Amino acid sequence: MTFKEHTFSRRTAGWCAVALLVGASWVMPSMAQAQARKDSLVLGMILEPTSLDPTMAPAAAIGEVVHYNILEGLTKINVDGSVAALLAESWKMDADGKAFTFKLRKGVKFSDGSDFDASAVKFSFERAKGEKSTNKAKAVFNNISHIATPDAHTVVIVLNNPDGNFLFRLGENTAVILHPGSAANAATKPVGTGPYRLDSWAKGSSISMSKWEGYRDAGAVKIKKVTFRFINDSAAQVAALLAGDIDGMPRFQSPQSLKQFQSDKRFVVEMGSSAGKGIMTINNRKKPFDDVRVRRALSHAVDKKAFIDGVFEGMAKPIGSHMAPTDAGYVELSGLYAYDPEKAKALLKEAGVQTPLNVTLTLPPPPYARKGGEILAAQLAKVGINAKIENVEWAQWLGGAFKGNFDLTVINHVEPLDYMAYANPQYYWGYDSKAFRDLAAKHSEATNAKDRTKLFGDMQRLIATDAVNVFLFNASNSAVYRKGLKGLWSSSPIFANDIAAVSWQ
User: Fold this and answer.
1) Using CA atoms, how far apart are residues 273 and 276, in angstroms rounded to an integer?
2) What parts of the sequence cross the membrane (predicted)?
3) CATH number, domain at 238?
4) Which residues have C-beta within 8 Å of that of residue 31, sequence separation ≥ 6?
5) Is 467 within 8 Å of 299 (Cβ atoms)?
6) Strand-pair partners of 85
7) How far is CA 291 from CA 431, 442, 467, 471, in A?
8) Are β-strands 144-151 and 88-93 bridged in parallel, bridged antiparallel, or unpaired?
């Protein structure tokens, strides 16, 4: 260390000491204020949504804010992944698995005071399958043959093909019921049947909601005001929790800081599961990635264990296809492409790829992408692939990579059971496989549980064999929150925050 470096370090240390003393004077009142709050809540989120209409925009962050809070669906997915009644109080499925009859709750209103009835369900689902729909679950709604509304509180949905996951799908944020008269404005002013109404959206900072006193079960809702603050920097998340600026991070993504909170009696740390599939996405449309040998080379070039240890401190599981270990019918394929740089080099040579191969690795803001991208770039360099890192904001990623403008990118697909994206050649990774589409069609039509399980496994194996993407991790869900807060989800079967179930002890 030079003298100047030493002098700077001492000066920095001095300023840090002053900052800590000054900071302590602010932390104490802030913590006291946080403890005094009994009917309000401030939660941290990693990403800011680009819209508040989950039926028209793809970002999972939308569901974290509006799902179950402002907007509701016919069914509800619980924290354990089970399906329960919500706007539908009951349902019946015909023997062929194609027709569902839903009985709707009576006395339900939208937050503008208008009645919720069968016409709103019909409108929402027909809108979701419409020609101009950008619903990311459009394939689910395209499978609907027709919708009947025999009376104001009955909806009959007939499918073209049986769908064993249909009730689960209706509990996802893509199937929420919108107010027919205001659906066009749902991106900024959603009107729903849920327990909260939107107060404000301070772009780049936070979204606030207030309890709607006209909600059908308002007496059971304890939190009167909730604010979601957007904090994508790990250090800033830690600081906000310690200072009492936020009451919790339901999806905390700084594994390195968990021990600090586990040893702090002011906080609770809960570990749960998620439906996430972390992948290094490959643009299958672009050369040389249209050659399966090149995609397999990428898979052999990546050391999944080193990635998981470096990014998650081991708190994630390696995966080998686009399914999470918690999914029924999951097939363990994480060892299909062992870490083997020499094999990767041989495959690149066999495919006629001249090295060094220059590519761009586009990274959105989450820590797993930014930190993980550095690890991946270093591993790819060992086999002759120079990955130039391009850091982008979330809106840029959605407008660029998600539109197919990328070479490689890193993203955690958190939607459960989203394997049907591989049947869509227009999806952003551009996988075009008739073999997969045929398997998916057979799986949809199958009514026998044994046949469905086999076909489900076959789909996973085909995706893995074709090395569509480099399948990396299924991360544990870490929830960190202030002691005394009850009801926050510790697992994430879907990305949602059910605030009506939350209260202060």
Assistant:
1) 9
2) none
3) 3.40.190.10
4) 243, 244, 266
5) yes
6) 75
7) 12, 27, 10, 17
8) unpaired
Regarding whether 254 and 215 lie in a shared domain, the answer is: yes
Say which residues have a Cβ less than 8 Å from residue 496's Cβ, sequence separation at least 6. Answer: 63, 64, 67, 68, 77, 173, 489
State how far the Cα of 218 lies from the Cα of 195, in Å rounded to an integer: 7
Last residue of a domain, one of 153, 185, 217: 185
Which of helix, strand or coil describes residue 501? helix
368 shares a domain with 326: yes
Average pLDDT over residues 288-313: 97
pLDDT digits 0-9 by tens, 88-122 = 999 999 988 899 999 999 999 999 999 999 999 99
Mean per-residue pLDDT for 192-199?
Answer: 98
Structure tokens at 480: 């960190």
- CA-CA distances (angstroms) from residue 204 to 207, 230, 266, 375? 9, 7, 29, 29
pLDDT tens-digit map of 53-85 = 999 998 899 999 999 999 999 999 999 999 999
Separation CA 295–CA 471 (nearest Å)? 11
Q: How many other CB atoms sit within 10 Å of the CB of residue 388?
A: 11
Helix, coil or strand: residue 50: coil
16 burial (CB, 10 Å; 0-12 / 13-18 / 19+) is: exposed
What is the reported pLDDT for 449? 86
Type of residue found at 74: L
pLDDT tens-digit map of 220-250: 999 999 999 999 999 999 999 999 999 999 9
Instruction: Examine the domain organization and report whether 307 and 405 are in the same domain.
Output: yes
pLDDT confidence of 23, banded at 50, 70, 90?
Answer: very low
Token digits for 350? 């066999």
38 confidence band (pLDDT: 50, 70, 90): confident
CA 406 to chain centre: 21
Q: What is the pLDDT of residue 2?
A: 35
Q: How confident is the model at residue 20 (pLDDT cuts 50, 70, 90)?
A: very low
Q: Say which DSSP state 109 is in.
A: B
Residue that terminates a domain, selected from 161, 185, 209: 185
Could you check whether the bond before residue 288 is cis, i.e. omega within 30 degrees of 0? yes
H or E stretch covering 239:
helix 234-243
Write out the two tokens for 186.
């749902």
What pLDDT does residue 11 have? 33
| Co-location of 481 and 441 in the same domain | no
Indicate whether 466 and 384 sit together in one domain. Answer: yes
